[in-house]
Design brief:
The complex is a heterodimer of chains A (300) and B (354). By secondary structure, chain A is mostly helical. Chain A is 70% helix and 0% strand. Chain B is α+β, with helices and mostly antiparallel strands and 354 residues long. In chain B, the strands form four sheets. In chain B, strands 6-7-8-3-9-10 form a six-stranded mixed sheet, sandwiched between helices. In chain B, strands 13-12-11-15-21-14 form a six-stranded mixed sheet. The longest helix of chain B has 18 residues. Chain B starts with 9 loop residues before the first strand and ends with a strand. The chains are: A mainly alpha (300), B alpha+beta (354). At the A-B interface, helix 10 and helix 11 of A face helix 2, helix 3 and helix 5 of B.
């Protein structure tokens, strides 16, 4: 009976087209399809494929690869090695980018400086590595200059320092550009207001700029971290790939192309992905302690 | 203890100049401001009024000249060392701080004790009538409420001088009138000097003790609202004070016997300063040029706007001069009406011979 009562009530009838339109779906929405296919083909499918074969080891039960990784210090040490490079490099890149971005945003020739700083991105890691090997190597101009002044040689390549320098050179421009865009998004009148209220430059940074930048810096840390965590070419070329800079991507490479164990390589890649995910989730979840609205003053 | 402005006798701007590259935004602005005075800097956009305010706040450095607070030279101090309150056009509230934190920011920067900050913030909230909004974020407030927070934040540090940069320009018409009264009330309550930048002559007339009319970086006239309303010093100021009819004409006679030709008729007029015969500009407010049955000026009506109490009209005299005038009763487009203005309300300025 109640069904009939409901049916009797005049319902406003809307067409499917209107229903979709209300949810902002129309013909233009179809244009998202190529992007979705692209993501599936190049990210989702390889990821799932790797995930599955990582549980199909050459020998042993389904968890054998993971058990092997975590029982062999030669393998599990790569995690610590990678973190030892990725975390300082990320922090250095992001933290240095803040004062520079704060200065650059007030410059007239911002374009020029930005272009100069962005050049390392376009060079690629291999070129940077080659350059560093030549300039900072035992016969490079840096060490020759030191010897000229009788200071003696400093070892800057084929070790941890070499990889770190390369990570900073190639990672800094990226971190800088991101920070610059967040910094310029902050309404300059907020700082002016703070200064008329008696806040010195340090207080303006601490109480106004930093809280408004926090969200952007968190994103910047995540992206920079993921970039540095997957370090490979510079760790091989500039580092000690059998020692201090034997990073996790080297372990995965050796499993895949030296031992031809695709399953093991996939397992290492999964572990690597998990480490990155853990750090990203940690950073993003700490964002809730900060203000997350617009960084403009007054009426938006 | 109530919030009260820090004491001073006089703020002196001495030949204040500011250049931006080759552009002279301020060309020697000189002005004395007494404690408790409400000064409006009035002028069209680009006249340098906001530049002057930013120079006073310390946000811009002077290219030349000086600023004195009693016997202290302050133009070389940084904004944080001046201790002036400033209300920004876009309010510039800190979006990540509650209303209370925003208002207390200046006091916290002075490292005042917590209890004192709390008490002063309460007081400031009460002054701007926002007592129950203290814990909200600025983004949760309406434009008018944000404006009040910005004012509270500027006055809570008890500044000798409050600077306001077109604070009402983002509000709707009704709220503007309301906040205008509020700003005047708060100004009188705390007893600071207020310098208020606006391009709205009505706002300046109703708020200020003295109005400074600026144009292209120069001070054109300083005076009380009455002085400026009745006797603008030059034709530019007159135009800005609502003398919409600016008729290029010729003046004859001198002093009280001066007359000007308007719309083909010769009318007795009032020279603002002693001047010679010849090229002149006659300035008349539309409100002073009224439809009267026996008026000397014949005008064909071209447009009529209803303004509540009167009709605001425009029309053309027989010689083609366009005139703006008011009528008590409705007039029809195309009609010919006769206009009259009292001689002392037709102001005459020397005009460029052209």
């Amino acid at each position: 009976m109640s069904d009939q009562v409901l049916a009797a009530r005049p319902r406003p009838r809307i067409s499917l087209r209107t229903w979709l339109k209300l949810r902002e779906i129309d013909g233009v929405t179809l244009m998202v399809i190529p992007a979705v296919l692209f993501v599936i083909a190049l990210f989702v499918y390889p990821f799932l494929y790797g995930f599955v074969i990582s549980f199909q080891p050459k020998t042993g039960d389904w968890l054998a690869n993971y058990r092997k990784f975590f029982s062999d210090p030669f393998l599990y040490d790569t995690i610590a090695n990678t973190f030892r490079l990725a975390i300082p490099a990320t922090l250095i890149n992001v933290l240095i980018s803040i004062p520079i971005a704060l200065r650059v945003r007030r410059m007239d020739r911002r374009r020029l400086l930005t272009t100069i700083l962005v050049i390392p991105i376009t060079l690629g890691t291999v070129l940077i590595a080659e350059g560093l090997l030549i300039y900072l190597g035992p016969q490079g101009w840096f060490n020759r200059t030191l010897m000229l002044f009788g200071i003696g040689q400093v070892r800057l390549v084929h070790n941890y320092t070499g990889v770190m320098l390369s990570l900073i050179l190639s990672g800094f421009p990226f971190a800088f550009l991101l920070t610059l865009s967040y910094v310029t998004g902050i309404d300059p009148s907020l700082e002016q207001a703070a200064s008329t209220l008696g806040a010195k430059a340090s207080a303006r940074f601490r109480y106004i700029l930093l809280p408004l930048l926090a969200q952007g810096l968190a994103i910047n840390l995540c992206l920079s971290f993921v970039q540095t965590f997957s370090v490979f070419p510079s760790a091989v070329l500039l580092g000690a790939p059998a020692g201090a800079t034997r990073v996790i991507s080297i372990a995965a490479y050796q499993a895949a192309y030296e031992q031809y164990d695709n399953s093991m390589a996939s397992a290492i890649a999964m572990i690597m992905g998990f480490c990155q995910l853990a750090v990203v989730i940690f950073i993003l979840s700490s964002r809730r302690f900060f203000y997350r609205g617009a960084a403009g003053g007054g009426k938006g | 203890m109530a919030i009260a402005a820090r004491d001073f006798r006089e703020l002196r701007l001495d030949a204040m100049c500011r250049n931006f590259g080759s552009l002279n935004a301020l060309k020697g602005v000189t002005l004395n401001v007494r404690r408790g005075e409400f000064i409006a800097l009035l002028g069209p956009s680009g006249c340098g009024k906001s530049t002057a305010l930013n120079c006073l706040a310390g946000l811009l450095t002077l290219s030349d000249g000086s600023i004195w607070l009693d016997n202290t030279r302050i133009d070389e101090l940084r904004p944080e060392e001046r201790g002036f309150g400033m209300v920004f056009q876009n309010y510039a509230l800190f979006p990540h701080m509650s209303v209370r934190k925003n208002i207390g920011f200046g006091l916290a920067m002075q490292k005042r004790p917590k209890a004192e900050i709390e008490r002063k913030v309460d007081e400031a909230l009460a002054i701007v009538r926002l007592t129950d909004q203290g814990d909200k974020l600025p983004g949760q407030l309406s434009g008018g409420q944000q404006q009040r927070v910005a004012i509270a934040r500027a006055i809570v540090i008890e500044p000798p001088l409050v600077l306001m940069d077109e604070p009402l320009s983002n509000l709707d018409a009704k709220l503007r009138l309301e906040m205008r009264a509020e700003i005047r009330r708060i100004h009188e309550l705390i007893g600071s000097a207020t310098i208020y930048v606006t391009h709205d002559q009505e706002e300046a007339l109703s708020l200020a003790d003295r109005i400074v009319v600026m144009r292209s970086g120069e001070v054109r006239q300083v005076g009380t609202p009455e002085e400026l309303y009745a006797g603008p010093a030059d034709a530019d100021v007159a135009e800005f004070m609502g003398y919409r009819n600016q008729i290029r004409t010729r003046a004859a006679g001198s002093g009280a016997a001066m007359s000007v030709a308007i719309g083909g008729v010769t009318l007795p007029a009032n020279p603002v300063r002693p001047m010679a015969e010849g090229a002149a500009i006659a300035a008349i407010r539309p409100n002073d040029l009224n439809v009267t049955a026996d008026g000397p000026l014949a005008v064909k009506v071209e447009s009529v706007q209803y303004h509540g109490q009167e009709f605001y009209c425009s029309g053309r005299a027989t010689d083609g001069t366009e005139l703006y005038f008011t009528a008590e009763h409705t007039v029809a487009k195309g009609d010919t009406v006769r206009l009259a203005a009292s001689p002392n309300r037709i102001l005459v300025y020397p005009g460029a011979a052209s």
